[in-house]
Design brief:
Number of strands: 0
Radius of gyration: 13 Å
Distance between the termini: 29 Å
Number of helices: 5
Largest sheet: none
């Protein structure tokens, strides 16, 4: 997860016009969210854990949107929003 987070942050920081890495960053952030959610110590009732998970999905959505991948962006934004909806 650490390696993916490092790559995602770097990919989202470089100029898209030169490196075309926003889609890579979006995919990495989405994968990070899935890994984070599946961790043994993930407490679905913890606001801190839910906020971190939502942050990863929002980062994915932002990067997909910047890469022109609206469907992927909307899906990840929906995942982030769903985390805090009342059950």
């Amino acid at each position: 997860m650490e390696v993916l987070l490092n790559r995602a942050n770097v990919a989202s920081s470089v100029p898209e016009s030169v490196f075309k890495k926003f889609a890579v960053a979006g995919a990495d952030f989405e994968r990070i969210a899935e890994l984070y959610k599946s961790c043994a110590n993930f407490d679905k009732d913890s606001d801190e854990k839910k906020t971190t998970l939502a942050y990863y999905y929002v980062c994915a959505a932002e990067n997909f949107r910047k890469a022109g991948r609206e469907t992927d962006a909307k899906r990840n934004a929906w995942y982030a929003e769903k985390i805090f909806q009342k059950q």
